[in-house]
Design brief:
234 residues; 12 strands; globular; 6 helices; alpha/beta
């Protein structure tokens, strides 16, 4: 079951164009947060150089990024924004960075056009790559490389449905519904028709336009069907 999570992360990295030749900086605290722990081990299996940056100030992380010539940054969208501001405060020139891809999750910012433009305009040469997942099932989706703002559910690993959270019926075209997932590759932690609480909208674009026939979500995760509590930024 753990390996299936790592394999799904490899699909995320692959869609982002990240591989064994990259140097990946993981700019987050190594607490009980599944998302980037699994990303970290998946990157190890790919043969990437992995740079853990837990328990450090933002300035120290930026200097580590430059000194080790990191090519990929993994963090939340708001932390990518925070690093830009810290770089300005501490006189760190991001034009010296070799970061070419910023892989984000944990917040909707990666699929919000204004947030994407803000981050990419201030990280020279870098593009933002969104995905989403959750503790219960691991990585779920990855960004369409040609259509930022559209996330594809990894149907190799899930049977995915979208339902109206009030009626449990399928919503109409262009309407928002709740993502429901059944896992396909889990021996130890299978879930059947798990109600994720994530509100999504099925894309109306033709799969030929997207270049992918995996289930497509327009705008990524749009909100929650239940209450949300922030705990130390998570």
């Amino acid at each position: 079951s753990w390996q299936s999570i790592l394999d799904d992360w490899k699909r995320v990295f692959g869609a982002a164009g990240v591989g064994g030749g990259d140097r990946i900086l993981f700019a987050f605290s190594f607490g009980p947060f599944l998302g980037f722990w699994s990303a970290f081990e998946s990157a190890l299996q790919m043969g990437s150089m992995v740079i853990p940056a837990g328990g450090m100030t933002s300035g120290a992380r930026l200097r580590m990024m430059l000194e080790n010539q990191a090519t990929v940054l993994c963090c939340t969208p708001t932390y990518a924004i925070r690093l830009v501001r810290v770089a300005a405060e501490e006189g760190i020139d991001l034009s010296n960075s070799r970061i070419r891809r910023i892989v984000v999750a944990g917040e909707p910012g990666g699929s919000v056009p204004a947030t994407r433009r803000w981050v990419e305009s201030r990280w020279p040469g870098a593009s933002l790559f969104d995905h989403h997942g959750m503790t219960e099932v691991g990585p779920v989706s990855y960004q369409n490389p040609n259509h930022p703002g559209t996330l594809h559910v990894m149907e190799e690993s899930f049977i995915a449905e979208v339902i109206d959270p009030q009626t449990n019926h399928a919503p109409g075209p262009g309407q928002v519904g709740e993502l429901v997932l059944s896992t396909l590759n889990r021996t130890g932690t299978p879930l059947l028709r798990y109600r994720t609480g994530d509100l999504v909208r099925l894309s109306t674009l033709d799969p030929k336009q997207l270049g992918c026939d995996q289930l497509a979500l327009d705008g990524g995760v749009l909100g929650r069907a239940d209450d949300m509590v922030l705990v130390r930024g998570v």
